[in-house]
Amino acid sequence: MVLPRADVFEAPIADGGEGTLKVLAASIPDLEIHDTEVPGPRADRPPIRARWGLRRDRRLAVVELAEASGLARVAPADRDPMVTGTAGLGHLLETARSRLLRGGPEASELLLAVGGSSTVDGGIGAARALGMTVVGPGGPDQRPLGGVDLQAVSRVHLEASVLDRWEGVRLRLLADVVNPLLGPDGAARVFGPQKGADESSIERLETGLEVWARRMASLAGGPCLGAGTGAGGGGGVGLAPLLRAGSRVPGERTADLGSHLESGFEVVAEIVELRRRIRASDLVITSEGSLDRQSMMGKAVGRLVGMAEEAGIPVIAVPGTSQGLDEASAARFEVIRCLADEVGADASWREPFEALQRTTAIALRSWSPSD
Q: What is the mean pLDDT of the chain?
């Protein structure tokens, strides 16, 4: 046994991507989990059951984009962000909104974890499902929409009655990355490939997102660009007009989308008191599937390292694999040991708990509290 006299404390973390709902459900008193049937990411596949959370006082709801439109919801052979869409997210948001209480001195809150999507649709599917009129070459489009439809959008319209439904509901968007919507670090070029996009699709999605962002800016009263807007395939862009509906601060009604986005990691960290736990520790151990460049762009591991650095606490990482991590980022970790390197990729898939346990022991043997 390594460090047999050590006191070990577990601290769940999430960053606004997949798993955020689970962490918050374990950390927020009286948050109850419900599930609802919604369209899946592909309209040509059967509906799915998606979970969401509602606090018993009906003043707080939690929705996770990944539950309805996540990458894990699509079989690898079916992944194609030209086809996948966020209609299911729209249905889930409407269900959660309808259960929240409105009225009183303060707005009810709906936390939306935006990351972990299988889509690069800019939230057009969710916007359409929530009641937005989307006009293409053939007029108003009534079918489920996806990434392929973005470029052809000529006009959008949102009835006042849709905004009225969100009055008194504060929609908070929790992003898991700091990537912008467009450009070399944007939703299409960085995340498109892992969602099934080829080079041709990436360029079409980039152009489509640019068109869609202009249309949404006209409704939102401000630009839909900036840090974090690339989260969830740009999923927050289609929801930008709703942000002003629940706001009780006049100046926020015309703010750009980027100023509304919050770090999912920071919000979750505050709820689980992560800073306090880190400061009380001598060492932080963390893990994720793949430790890479994206890990350090607003995702949980990168944010955790930053928080530990502020407190002067070293961090050991035991990811499944590590590829493409630059030297400066790697140097921020005391030790990095990968499951695939230490016990083999096949063994890691067959027995993940045992593989993680063994790899953590190997990492700890290369670290000493006196270092």
A: 92
